[in-house]
Design brief:
Strand content: 15-25%
Distance between the termini: 19 Å
Structural class: alpha+beta
Order of helices and strands: HEHEHHEHHEHEH
Bound molecules: flavin mononucleotide
Number of strands: 5
Number of helices: 8
C-alpha cells in the first residue's frame, strides 16, 4: 500500500524551534486551519469542550513577554538568562495558539454521567491533544513550522486577565508557529517491535 496523503503530511510535522514572523500563508489561512480542526476533531460524547485562542503579531509577542515576567518571579536570577533566551526563541515566531478546556462542560458531563466522572477530565485532555495534533500537522502541510509548549499554570492568571478568558477555561498548551528558519534535526525512533504488537 502506498502512503496516504495524511501519512505523508504526518511525517512533515516536527518540533520546529527556529521560527520567524514571515508566514508562507495569510493570517486568515491560519485562522481557517484552527477553526477547521476545532470543528472536525472528535471529543468524548461530542462534548466539544476544547476552546482556542489565536494570537497573532503583537498579541503573540505579549504572551511571551508575560511568560518572561512570570518566570522571572520563580527562576533563580543566575539561571534566568537561559530562560529568557528560550522564551525569546518562541517570541521570534509569528503567533501562538492557546488551547483551553472548558471545565464547565467537563463538570456538566460528570454530573450527567457519574459512572464516568473520573474519566471526563482525562478525555477532555485527549480531545485537546487531538486538536493540537490536527492543527500542528495541518500547519506543517502548509510549510508553517510549530512547536508545542506548556507554560501553564505559571502564565494562567496573566493570560486570563490579558485576553479576558472565562474563569472556567483551563489552559492546557501553547502551540507556537511561524516561518521556518531552519528545519528540525534528525529524530531517533525507539524500536517498533518493543512498542507495537500485532496478533492474528
Ligand atoms: C504531550 C506532549 C508534550 C510536549 N511538551 C513539550 C514542551 O513542553 N516543550 C517542547 O519544547 N516540546 C514539547 N513537546 C514536543 C516533543 O518534545 C516532541 O514532539 C518530540 O521530541 C518528538 O519530536 P517531533 O515533534 O519533532 O516529532 C511535547 C510533545 C507532546 C506530544
Amino acid at each position: 500500500m502506498s502512503k496516504t496523503t495524511l501519512q505523508t503530511v504526518a511525517q512533515t510535522r516536527r518540533s520546529v524551534y527556529a521560527l520567524n514572523k514571515t508566514l508562507p500563508v495569510s493570517k486568515d489561512d491560519i485562522n481557517q486551519i484552527v477553526e477547521h480542526a476545532l470543528l472536525h476533531t472528535p471529543s468524548a460524547f461530542n462534548s466539544q469542550s476544547t476552546r482556542l485562542v489565536v494570537l497573532h503579531g503583537e498579541e503573540h509577542d505579549k504572551l511571551w513577554e508575560i511568560a518572561k515576567a512570570e518566570l522571572a518571579k520563580i527562576v533563580p536570577a543566575e539561571n534566568f538568562a537561559a530562560t529568557e533566551a528560550k522564551l525569546d526563541m518562541f517570541k521570534a515566531g509569528a503567533g501562538t495558539v492557546l488551547f483551553f478546556e472548558d471545565t464547565n462542560v467537563v463538570k456538566g458531563l460528570q454530573d450527567s454521567f457519574p459512572a464516568y466522572a473520573d474519566n471526563f477530565p482525562i478525555w477532555a485532555d485527549h480531545a485537546s491533544a487531538m486538536t493540537q495534533y490536527a492543527i500542528w500537522t495541518t500547519l506543517a502541510s502548509e510549510n508553517v513550522g510549530a512547536n508545542l509548549q506548556h507554560y501553564n499554570p505559571v502564565i494562567d492568571a496573566e493570560v486570563a486577565k490579558t485576553w479576558n478568558i472565562p474563569e472556567s477555561w483551563k489552559l492546557r498548551a501553547q502551540l507556537v508557529f511561524g516561518g521556518i528558519v531552519s528545519p528540525a534535526g534528525d529524530k531517533e525512533f525507539a524500536p517498533v517491535a518493543d512498542r507495537m504488537k500485532v496478533h492474528g
